[in-house]
């Protein structure tokens, strides 16, 4: 009997801090019954790309520019703009770590 080749793909959208374990479990089960199942975790690949030095570095300059636009203006920052400013501040506060992000 000819065996089917099956590819299990897990798409991006899961959290970055914990792997999705259903596909590895299915692969283990498939192996025990002699089926050929390959798995591909696109979520891991997505976060590797998202948190890479190249991607973060390309966004960093835009963030610095936007932060300085807020910082040097003459009117108070309120509401949604304040939330955006605070988020930029938190990101830029640790930007010295971005050069080592791939390591």
Characterize the main sheet. 2 strands, parallel
Q: What percent strand?
A: 5-15%
General shape: elongated
Overall pLDDT score: 85
Order of helices and strands: EHEHHH
| Low confidence ranges | none
Spatial strand sequence of the major β-sheet: 1-2
**How many distinct helices?**
4
- What is the distance, rounded to the nearest whole angstrom, between the alpha carbons of the first and last residues? 47 Å
| Category by helix and strand content | mainly alpha
Number of domains: 2
Q: Count of DSSP E strands?
A: 2
Question: Which range best describes the helical content: under 10%, 10-25%, 25-40%, 40-55%, 55-70% or over 70%?
Answer: 40-55%
Radius of gyration: 22 Å
Describe the protein.
The chain has 103 residues and is mainly alpha-helical. It folds into two domains: 5-48, no CATH class; 53-100, no CATH class. The protein is built from four helices and two strands; from the N terminus they run βαβααα. It has a two-stranded parallel ribbon with strand order 1-2. 1% of the residues are buried. The mean pLDDT is 85.
